[in-house]
Amino acid sequence: MQTLSTTTSLRESISAQRMQGRRIAFVPTMGNLHAGHLQLVRQASMLADCVVVSIFVNPMQFGPNEDFATYPRTLDADKAALQAEGVEMLFLPTVEEMYADGLEQATRVEVPGFEGDLCGRSRPGFFTGIATVVAGLFNRVQPDMAVFGEKDYQQLVMIKRMVRDLCMPIEIEGVATMREADGLAMSSRNGYLEAAQRDRAVCLYQALSVVKAALDSGSRDYAFLERQALESLQRAGFEPDYVSVREQLSLRVPGPGSRRLVVLGAATLGGTRLIDNISLSIT
Asked: What is the rounded distance in angstroms from the CA atom of residue 239 to the CA atom of residue 53?
């Protein structure tokens, strides 16, 4: 596995792959890799000839009171896991490589409709930070396709829209959320949870599952179901941010004709922010 830290060296290596007619798949990550990340890598390997993974903890998407400095960094273990999966290139850019003139002077990419909605309500600048770094990584790697997890559902919808609107010739592949045995969505931030908190963390998935079951049974009182879910999370000791039923493709509030829905939720447990979602189709 090649480990590259500059755009120039990365492009040279990718150019050599393209000269052999090889299809390039890209998996951007922030490291601290778990089984969910590795499933993205496996999916990329099935869809392309050469897999490029990046590890970059992006400061632009962290707010002033968030965990950028303490975000778990496990580079040696990450390298070993990627090597075992047959990844051909690992891109490890520095902050200076990604933002040559510093964060304040960096050109930003904003996809309308994401700041101020769902996770964007409580994390101002978060989605602009993601769109900016992903656009920068896409321009460096220039992959044929890129793979993202559906756990970060709002992010996935935003990236698909950015690629469409900016006419980037990249296929975006979403991969279903990997879960622990009890249903908790795999996440690097699960490692912050204490033992008792870890046992309760699955309540987020359970609350969303109750909403899904009600929708499957014919309920269409979205506001009532969302309120019930928030109350159940509060009783379980969470500080809920939101539970919301949306259209899968647009993330708009469902209308009478909406059939493909997603139930999204975010809540904080003991200082750790957890997110999850469940998709469904109704008749």
From this structure: 34
CA angle 225, 231, 233 (to 5 degrees): 105
pLDDT at 64: 87
The mean pLDDT of the chain is: 97
Q: What is the rounded distance in angstroms from the CA atom of residue 266 to the CA atom of residue 274?
A: 6
Q: Show contacts of 254-260: CB within 8 Å, 24+ apart.
A: 254/222, 258/282, 259/283
- pLDDT, tens only, 116-158: 999 999 999 999 999 999 999 999 999 999 999 999 999 999 9
Within 13 Å and on the Cβ side, how many CA atoms surround 32? 13
Question: Does position 34 have pLDDT exceeding 90, yes or no?
Answer: yes
Angle between helices 203-216 and 222-235 (to 10 degrees): 160
**Domains of the chain, start order:** 2-175 (3.40.50.620), 188-278 (3.30.1300.10)
Q: Does the annotation count 37 as an active-site position?
A: yes
Active-site option among 25, 37, 132, 147: 37
Unique residue bearing structure tokens 């909605």? 117
Phi, psi of 140 (to 5 degrees): -80, -45
- Residues 149, 155, 161, 166: what is their CA dihedral angle, to the nearest 10 degrees? -100
Task: Between 44 and 64, name the one with better pLDDT.
Answer: 44
Q: What is the 3-state secondary structure (H, E, C) of 235-279?
A: HCCCEEEEEEEEECCCCCCCCCCCCEEEEEEEEEECCEEEEEEEE
φ, ψ for residue 265, nearest 5 deg: -150, 150
Tokens of 250: 């647009």
In 66-142, which ranges are continuous DSSP H helix?
A: 75-84, 95-98, 119-122, 126-141
Burial class (CB in 10 A: 0-12, 13-18, 19+), 62: middle
